[in-house]
Design brief:
The protein has 326 residues and is of the alpha/beta class. The chain has one domain: Alpha-Beta Barrel (TIM Barrel), CATH 3.20.20.100. Helix content is 40%, strand content 13%. The strands form 2 sheets. It has an 8-stranded parallel β-barrel, surrounded by 4 helices. Strands 1-2 form a two-stranded antiparallel ribbon. Strand 6, helix 4 and strand 7 form a beta-alpha-beta unit.
């Protein structure tokens, strides 16, 4: 396993990490989570990603139980969670969802700590921007959470570059803990935010990236070329919003053209797609997901392709995928 600094911070995270979105509770129980987390940890993975909203808090509970059973030294792993949407099972109280106000954030961290069974969470994210709450209020609340010892670093997820810079500037001006990482979607068909919009932030504020969806929700595995297979992510009722994109004819045709390149390198389509994301030096870690152990082990094999992604190979990949990328 390779390790990279999280932006300009001193924290080092594994190049590949394991996330729980979609899978935990929906497809993966505590026993399966423990098995996959153990295998990932044995392979050198030290970062495990989560969010308050995933399975309405149950994802955090499953990961927390798995961590307790695994009993790793706390210094040896990094855990994250994200706040914004709240918990669906808590109803529609106005200050419980779709917000980053102080009241919500200071109570949300306590809920996550309880579900995880941890004394602190390493990384906390503002899961989406909140235009109704002043950025100064949000930044101060995140700073206070860190000062209280409940988290170590904070960042954002799917924020515009201007909003990230504004949060960083207000924190810098007040001497507060500044946001150090952003969690954006990044894959062969979704590039502009990471490669263009955020370009100046890597040098200006030392932004690190913990990217999600390297396989475009499974599109880049090739499994959707003939429709939506039973048991796949696209077949899940709560993932219905993904289906149209997964069966996109032009993108699936491009995926078919990428397959021979993956084979030439001695890997699979999925491994090629994950390695392509990890090839970007601004990416601190690539968050992968898995619903079974064999899938996790295959994803980890992407590291073997990294050195094979020469400029010539990258140019061939780009010629196929870039024209369809957003």
């Amino acid at each position: 396993m390779q390790y990279r600094r999280l932006g300009r911070s001193g924290l080092r995270v594994s190049t590949l990490s394991l996330g729980s979105w979609v899978t935990y509770h929906n497809q993966v129980d505590t026993g399966q989570a423990r098995e996959m987390m153990a295998a990932a940890f044995d392979a050198g993975v030290n970062f495990f990603d989560n969010a308050e909203v995933y399975a309405s808090g149950r994802s955090e509970e499953i990961m927390g139980r798995a961590l307790k059973e695994l009993a790793w030294p706390r210094l040896n792993y990094v855990v994250s969670t994200k706040f914004f949407w709240g918990l669906d099972r808590n109803g529609d109280a106005v200050n419980r969802k779709d917000t980053l106000n102080r009241k919500y954030l200071l109570q949300a961290i306590d809920g996550s700590l309880q579900r995880f069974g941890l004394d602190f969470i390493d990384l906390i994210y503002c899961h989406r921007p909140d235009p109704q709450t002043p950025v100064e209020e949000t930044a101060r609340a995140m700073n206070d959470i860190i000062n209280q010892g409940k988290a170590l670093y904070w960042g954002t997820s799917e924020w515009a570059a201007a909003d990230i810079h504004a949060a960083w500037e207000v924190a810098d001006r007040h001497g507060w803990h500044k946001p150090v990482m952003e969690q954006p979607q990044y894959h062969l068909f979704h590039r502009s935010r990471v490669e263009q919009e955020y370009a100046h932030l890597y040098d200006d504020i030392g932004l690190g990236l913990t990217t999600w969806s390297p396989l475009a929700s499974g599109l880049l595995t090739g499994k959707y070329r003939a429709g939506v297979p039973e048991g796949s992510r696209g077949a899940l009722e709560n993932m219905a919003f993904l289906r149209e994109g997964l069966v996109d004819a032009a993108k699936n045709a491009a995926v078919a053209k990428l397959e021979p390149i993956a084979a030439e390198l001695g890997g699979t389509l999925a491994q090629l797609a994950i390695a392509w994301v990890a090839k970007n030096p601004h990416v601190s870690t690539v968050i992968t997901g898995a619903s079974k152990l064999s899938q996790l082990q295959a994803n980890l094999g992407a590291l073997e392709l990294l050195d094979k992604l020469t400029p010539e190979v990258m140019a061939r990949i780009d010629a196929i995928s870039a024209p369809l990328a957003a």
